Amino acid sequence: MLRVFRSRLADAFALEIPPHSYALLRIAIGAVGLLSVLGMTPFAMYWPLDGLAPLPGSGVRAWIAARDLGTVAGTVLFVALVCSFGAMAVGFRSDLAVFSSFVGQVALTHWNNLPLSSAHQVATVLLFCLIWAPTGQVWSLDARWRNAIPQPAPAWPLWLMRVQIAIIYLSSGLHKFAYPMWRDGSAVHWALNLNAFHRFPWPWPGSLAPLEAFLTWSTLAFELTFWVFVLFRRTRPWILLAGIGLHLGLFLSLELGPFSPLMMASYLCYLAPETTEKLFHSRDKL
What we know:
Elements: H1 2-14, E1 16-17, H2 20-38, H3 43-46, H4 60-66, H5 70-90, H6 94-111, H7 118-131, H8 141-146, E2 153-154, H9 156-177, H10 180-183, H11 187-193, H12 209-229, H13 236-253, H14 259-266, H15 273-285
Antiparallel strand pairs: 1-2
């Protein structure tokens, strides 16, 4: 039995798919990443060391601060991230752009983590998966200039991304379940009425308590069962549609940064590679 499992695992890693899924993910994640970086403004608040940043400790940050280079280093990091995510979105030096964006995301974590949300960790993980895939063979400036025939790409980075998204939801659901407010149905009520999260400055009326409880429990159920329903082709479209509805609701009602757009962009990894290839060919015929 172990031998069969090893054989199937080896076959899965050797499987190749059309590269179109990776191109689509590159464009979507690059666009969301670019908007996320541009959203961390005004510049003087987030990027120089004398702005809204943690106090310098030891290591590189302390060395930069001691030489009064905080503004220069912050400017370099900001411009580098804008350029790398922009290059990802348009497909200029695509593979290098993906790698540079990943490195920039890691650097930003150590530079100033105050304006970052959970979207930053999600983007870092997705970029890590994309590093191992050819992302610029189609729908990119690279492809237009090279005019080369797209070659099959390894499938395992796509599977890795799918597994990662499922783990994100499951871990989030388990974390929520540990808190009484998620079990008693009041979590959405508090989120919508706390100044730290709500997008609109007015409270929900008490008569909507049953709806808030339903939204709390349905969110919890979605996150705990996502990994099951996304496994099967018949249930996958329905759970993804539920996820889009959830994230649209979060985006419209709560201030969560780029988390919702990024998660919806990550759903592109669940499209069948053959379907994505057909979409690209349909676009080419227009």
